[in-house]
Automatic annotation (TrEMBL):
This is Tryptophan--tRNA ligase. It comes from the Bacteria. InterPro entries: aa-tRNA-synth_I_CS, aa-tRNA-synth_Ic, Rossmann-like_a/b/a_fold, Trp-tRNA-ligase, Trp-tRNA-ligase_bac-type, Trp-tRNA_synthetase. The lineage of its organism: Bacteria, Bacillati, Actinomycetota, Actinomycetes, Kitasatosporales. It holds the Pfam family tRNA-synt_1b. Transmembrane segments: none annotated. A motif ('HIGH' region) lies at residues 9-17. It is found in: Cytoplasm. Belongs to the class-I aminoacyl-tRNA synthetase family. One of its GO terms (biological process) is tryptophanyl-tRNA aminoacylation. Its EC number is 6.1.1.2. Keywords: Aminoacyl-tRNA synthetase, ATP-binding, Cytoplasm, Ligase, Nucleotide-binding, Protein biosynthesis. It comes from Mangrovactinospora gilvigrisea. SUPFAM superfamilies: Nucleotidylyl transferase.
Length: 333
């Protein structure tokens, strides 16, 4: 079985990205084969063009995200780590996806509504983003897409488009499905626990733990997290979103003990926060040490991305050719 997932270089990656997605990818051994082509992890840089950006910063973030992926423990010998814009198949298949998706479907996407509401002028790319994301997944015939909760709707759409394409033009694509982590699928902002922690957010940044935050600063952010009324530690995401978020983080950083079970171990918010801070720092420190090793060696990162893109292209081209052929485009002879 093949899995694909990606992260956008739109900002400094956060604890949400790690717990909801990247940490999971590094633990793929449990649910996949030994073939490095069966697990593809991508820095989806083309997706970063959907919102206003600065070219030099984008190049820097792309390197940072690629380096962090390796620092989480992804082994480039056992999986394929690459940069989306290095593989032409993604954009070649996007046009095909745009021809099978309805504009109403794109306008209904929650992320489009949220992100477009925050901007004065909205690019067409922000609207068609899910068509590119469907192409990202379908270009490899990926069956599983490990993502956080906020990306589930886009994976559902990719699923619908695979089925629609296959029904109209003949079986080309396996039908993918989203897989979510048991805890940490939706890490909330520590200052505004009703909002998702997002790397491109520019408000409530004190509630965002960046993966490269100095450990002291990460600890401070946890200790200053907004908690809820009352004093009892219970897991109730509706009534106590702040405490529930801390319990979710603790569960995802620890051995997987359920958040509700963890709640029974605490008599005060202070003790809970202190354990969450320790758990977060224990995750960040080794990650940052590995990041520094790789960051000192950019040539190795370039080589890994290059080899990854070559392997990814070889895997994607047959799917794209099959789709072009099935839809009626005359093959070059
Ligand atoms: P942006 O604000 O630019 O959308 P983001 O933080 O949402 O950035 P993405 O690149 O969109 O990050 O998503 C990368 C992966 O991280 C996806 O699988 C997404 O579901 C997951 N993810 C993002 N934010 C969170 C979060 N707060 N909790 C859990 N998973 C998350
Ligand atoms: Mg996002």
């Amino acid at each position: 079985m093949r899995i694909f997932s990606g992260v956008k270089p739109t900002g400094h990656p956060t604890l949400g990205n790690l717990l909801g997605a990247m940490q999971r990818w590094a633990r793929i051994d449990q649910f996949r084969s030994d073939d490095p082509g069966d697990a593809l992890f991508c820095v989806v840089d083309l997706h970063a063009l959907t919102v206003p950006h600065e070219p030099a910063a984008l190049r820097e973030r792309t390197r940072e995200v690629a380096t962090l992926l390796l620092a989480t423990g992804l082994d480039p010998e056992r999986c394929t780590v690459f940069c989306q814009s290095h593989v032409a198949a993604h954009t070649r298949l996007t046009w095909i996806m745009e021809s099978v998706v309805g504009d109403g479907e794109l306008r209904r996407m929650v992320q489009y509504k949220e992100k477009s509401a925050r901007q004065e002028s909205v690019s067409t790319a922000l609207l068609t983003y899910p068509a590119l994301m469907a192409a990202d997944i379908l270009a490899y015939g990926a069956e599983e897409v490990p993502v956080g909760d906020d990306q589930r709707q886009h994976v559902e759409l990719a699923r619908d488009l695979a089925v629609r394409f296959n029904t109209r033009y003949g079986e080309v694509f396996p039908v993918p499905r989203a897989v979510r982590p048991p805890a940490g699928a939706r890490v909330m902002n520590l200052q505004v626990p009703t909002d998702k922690m997002g790397k491109s957010d520019d408000t409530a940044v004190q509630g965002i733990i960046y993966l490269l935050d100095p450990p002291d600063s990460a600890r401070r952010k946890v200790m200053r997290a907004v908690t809820d009324g009352g004093r009892e530690v219970v897991y109730d995401p509706e009534a106590k979103p702040g405490v529930a978020n801390l319990l979710d983080i603790l569960s995802a950083c620890g051995d997987g003990t359920e958040p509700a079970e963890l709640a029974t171990r605490y008599a005060s918010y202070g003790a809970l926060k202190s354990d969450v801070a320790d758990a977060v720092v224990a995750v960040l420190e080794p990650l940052q040490a590995r990041y520094r090793e790789f960051a000192d060696d950019p040539a190795t990162i370039d080589k890994i991305l290059r080899a990854g893109a070559d392997r990814a292209s070889a895997l994607a081209d047959p799917y794209v050719s099959a789709a072009y052929d099935a839809i009626g485009l005359l093959p070059p002879r």
